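Field: sequence (string)
Field: structure_tokens (string)

Example rows 1 and 2, in order.
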Amino acid sequence: MNAIKAAQKLIESNPDDPEAKVLANLVLALEDESSFSLGDLYRLGEGRFELAIRILEEWRIDRYYAGKAKLFDLSWQVRDMRGGGAPTS
């Protein structure tokens, strides 16, 4: 199971758990590109800390692919604006 789905299940099943709240705050900070206390990560138990690290890894990979998809879409738009032909010199 990927880390994001594992975190979702944990947060859904234990919304009042302090460690679930830390993971939820991590996800919100990643989405908003806002600050997050690293001290909160260090207070997590070993398994939850590892889950947080996996969330960070997956989030970074997903952002890379989202950026790549946006670039691909923009490239199609530019090509369509030129009439679909080959680039002009």
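Row 2 begins here:
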Amino acid sequence: MMKNNNDSHWSVIIVGGGIVGAGIFRDLSKHGVKTLLIDKNKISSQTSKSSSKMLHGGIRYLENFDLGLVKEALTERNLWLKITPHLCYKENFLIPVYSNSNRPLWMILVGIGIYHYLSGQISKLLSFKSRSELKKSFPELRTSDLRGAGLYEDAVVDDEQLTIEVVEDALHNKSCDVLENHALKSLVKKGDRYFLTVYSGEQKLELSCDELVFATGPFTDYLLQNLNCFPWTSKLLLSKGSHIWIDKKSLTLPNPVVLTPNDGRVIFVIPYPDKILVGTTEVKLDGPPKEIKPSEEEIDYLISNLNEFFSNTTITRDQLIGSYAGIRPLVKEGSSDLGNTSREHHIYQPDRNVYVILGGKYTTFRVMASDVASKIIRKMKRPYMPHLSMEPFKSEKKDPEVL
């Protein structure tokens, strides 16, 4: 809830409290811009807490020659490892390769070499595990037709908490605020200002701003078409990704494993101290469903692949201890093939002072935020300072008002 309900006009209002909206909020806050962040639910309550919980470059995007995107994401991964070590940590990811795998071992090793090179890890260009080494470290892993495995480094992150702490850091600027559990119901432009009506149950608030940002991810097309304040055609290709949590005792995993089924998908199996995360699926959607949860078919798919690759044990639904799903807001391009759709982000301006950001990856949220924030700040005739968003989070102990 806002600290000051009487403050109804803002320089910038951001609609959408996921990681991208949070990143824009923090960047504007660092530049001293009076900004309000609005979400119809809690901060980080949708897609941004439903990822595969990794900060990664996307090693599989190398096949599409998205080298710029991969390098950008790896640079961002390294940044967050440095400035938020309490929220993310490095892990070695293993890719087992079989004689019938879509990608031969040499291709996997070359890809890992390029991946490490793009991340600046020159000393780790080639990482290989033999069949005999794998039998010792991963006893449940299928060894028939096993050729070996590649090993590469990436990061695991608490995605929900990172989003929350990005917002909390922005709130050190006392001219910035957050409004949770308020849904935007109407939008009207009068002169150079935008007037928003938001509701929380029966409570109504009237707000206005000079600049308006939509960082509403998979809900963008539906929201903007319903508001009908300016022309908006559908831009999104929606993809549901589901994950399951299984009991820690189900598998012996010294580090994460990347499964590569012959359907071209990639499934991450990531051990945690008390459980194991398995995901993700990729299911095309016609629009945001009312209830976002894994389907029975998706759960069966993930369990089936676990049993295919870890054939020296049997995973059943009895070992399932939880599940979740999220929707990726991919931007439509020529192809409707989800796997080949670029993860590049796009910024649209349907009106002079309105910004809509779509696409991208969780890992690159700071870059996405910078692209929007820099446009707004420069329009205000202020200098944009990109290094501000690279600073560590401010400690409460250093806040002069607390001291």
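free_text_note (row 2): The chain has eight helices and 18 strands.
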